[in-house]
């Protein structure tokens, strides 16, 4: 007997219902046109399928303004975030300390003053300011002199007890210790420049008078706390190649390499061992310049209760500090903020206390701290683990906070000048829809890169995104992968086809394994 087409369908279907109705097979459904979201997913999958990416570990999450997921790839995987950890320390600091918080530094004494003589010790008390310049210590010294003091019969006592004495973070690399992005953390310190690279000195190198002559060296700011060992020479021509490295456990800085006749000054940064003594030396020199002589030596102790204040300096606000901190990815700023949070919440300026305060603040912003691990504020540690889910939870939780505009403005901005606007994204994504659009925090360690923040779509919708790549081969232009994704998001529209489907993959200029700011390349 010949069977009808309907009978054939019924016989071949495994979806006959008890009521007798039939669920038609998928082959009868009309093909659906790809939606803009479907196209976005296809394009991001294409980007993440390029050679070298599948062999690495890439986790990505993109969310719309309503919080809905537009794209997800292993977004709950815990990966090393590098400096993306600063998204967490910066928001927590705004929650705990407030944008108006300042760090005072003061000069005090319990001794009496007779005529122009202070008959006891002079205390220099630091409370964490990472922005103190040599000029600020000079201003403090000028105020002491203006008070009438010309002679101090006691010691200069440096007080860094506002924070604990632990100088380096959990599992920071020993081989990074001499370099300025791995500075020691003290409540009393000095910055040599207006990037506020606290706890470091700048070594300036100039050519000697003749070929073969030793190079000329100068330390900035002027201090005898460090000792330069000069092994650098002058050559006839060619590019400058200098190495400036502090020997472990000392303040002996060895300078090697060569600089050509007629070359401009070269600047290299080095960390200081025990920055408290560095600050005391800079201040003592300033006192001398202003006619104040300290007869005693330099010692270290807490300022006694009831000491009278002779001079005081107030730092910029935390809201203002966010600009050099976030734009240039300053590790020292992150860790000072962590310890300051601990000091404010529990009276203990330590990493443990600060991280506990951070945890409470971040949970209030919607972060599930049970699914991630944070052991420092900067992301230098390889014991930090974040997930794109929690990064975007933080980004979305921050949007409703009163300090959001300040925080959003502090993020690096793609292809934006000057450097205190573009920061670590200043040279990336130029001549694309992402330029001047993407506000995001970068992150870089060896075989680690991350980018997380905001991008505005072609419809004007602010998207949140997090990209974390780990364990990639050195040949992979990993930051170029991040840029491709961000550019594609900037071209996203819910109502119109994108003008760019898969952007061209470009290699970022500059080093791949560190933030460009760490080598002063951005």
Q: How does this model look, in words?
A:
- With 522 residues, this protein is an alpha/beta fold.
- The protein is built from twelve helices and 20 strands.
- The protein has helices at residues 5-12, 36-47, 86-96, 134-146, 275-289, 318-327, 331-346, 351-364, 388-398, 404-410, 419-422, 478-490; strands at 57-63, 69-73, 104-109, 113-114, 117-118, 122-126, 151-152, 156-159, 200-206, 216-220, 227-235, 241-246, 252-260, 266-271, 293-294, 298-300, 308-314, 439-445, 448-456, 462-470.
- Strand 18 (439-445) and strand 19 (448-456) form a beta hairpin.
- It holds the Pfam family Peptidase_S13.
- Belongs to the peptidase S13 family.
- Its EC number is 3.4.16.4.
List keywords for this structure.
522 residues, alpha/beta, Beta-lactamase, D-tyrosyl-trna(Tyr) Deacylase, Chain: A, 3 domains, 5-stranded antiparallel beta sheet, 5-stranded mixed beta sheet, 20 strands, disordered N terminus
Task: Itemize the secondary structure elements and their pairings.
Blueprint: H1 5-12, H2 36-47, E1 57-63, E2 69-73, H3 86-96, E3 104-109, E4 113-114, E5 117-118, E6 122-126, H4 134-146, E7 151-152, E8 156-159, E9 200-206, E10 216-220, E11 227-235, E12 241-246, E13 252-260, E14 266-271, H5 275-289, E15 293-294, E16 298-300, E17 308-314, H6 318-327, H7 331-346, H8 351-364, H9 388-398, H10 404-410, H11 419-422, E18 439-445, E19 448-456, E20 462-470, H12 478-490
Parallel strand pairs: 5-7, 6-8, 7-15, 8-16, 11-13
Antiparallel strand pairs: 1-2, 1-20, 3-6, 3-17, 4-5, 9-10, 9-14, 12-13, 18-19, 19-20
Helix pairs in contact: 2-12, 3-6, 3-7, 3-8, 4-5, 6-10, 7-8
Keywords: Carboxypeptidase, Hydrolase, Protease, Signal
Signal peptide: 1-25
EC number: 3.4.16.4
